Please model this.
Amino acid sequence: MVSSPSAVTAPRRTLTITPASVILVCVAALLAIGLAVLFSASSPIKGGPYAYLYKQFIFLALALGAGWVVARADLEQVRKFAWPAAALALLALVLVLIPHLGIAVKGSRRWLGLGSVRLQVSEFAKLALVFSLAHYLALAQSKLSEFWRGFFLPFAWIGLFAILILAEPDFGTAFLAGSIGMIMLFLAGARLRFLLPSIGGALAGFVVLVLHNPNRLRRITSFMDIEANRGDGAYQLWQAILAFASGGVDGVGLGNGRQQQAFLPEAHTDFIFAILGEELGLLFTLLVVGLFITIFIAGLMHVRRAPNLFQFLLVTGCLLLICLQAIINLGVVTGMLPTKGMSLPFISAGGSNLLLMGLLVGIIINTSRTWERPRPLQRPRDFAEIVA
Model:
């Protein structure tokens, strides 16, 4: 019996695994872990565990919606709004510093809100900085070897955002935004002879500000001797270390942790990784670290296909906003970095950061759709020319 031609020639569908699809799977896994641990970590909080869980689900839905919209947008058309978006972000950073407009919590003015809804302005300012800086550096690509247009103007732009965030004060976010901005400036092709002295000066100024901030200075001195300050400045970090020690390899089980019972402050936000380590154990902590590493590697593989400098810098900035923030949070909770308030992406409670993460992933998915026939990225100069 002869088979029909259609049966012989019918093409087989194959499943293509792309870097963006790998990132999506990792993000979904982190969200699932985050919701489970958040339910446990927020159980002793006023209102019960469901109060924070419901709020997180609401913002998760908003984040998914925002990510879907961004993933369907035309980035080259959206690019026209880079400067208005940056101006709006700067205005919000100024408004948050005004009494009776900005919402103060524990001495910091970081939120604008209406009723019970609060948004942390600096979270969205980070994306506005990355978006506008990528736009400018792509426009000035032929002038990046010059001091004025290729270095001073973008450096001042980064500094403006960082200074306004520092004024809240929010040292961690200012450091994160400034670091990502300088990395983007380097990748675009700015000369190292301009970058290195400026980075050194900025770090020196940052250190001076830290030394003149009593609260921040106390955190750093406590961090340098955790055990001696475990009852004062290093109490939060000491409790986090106890949580990891208690969890061991297998963990004590969800809901059975001791640290969530008001022993560890901010257990559901900045220090949720310690709750994860106590209740789910070493294997799950390594899984979370591995998922972030996988996101970073997949992002690097993806960004190599960028068709132009603007999209290369934009996606690189988005990738760094996810992974560098995760590195800082993990470093703080495990005692490798001084304590600073910064969420663990996709896991910590916090609507503003979750919305930001949705937008960042949406941008990466957008470029995965539009880079089907990529052109090789043309570097403006090689490394020897940058150093010269």
Q: What stands out?
A: Residues 374-388 have pLDDT under 50 and may be disordered. The chain has one domain: 18-368.
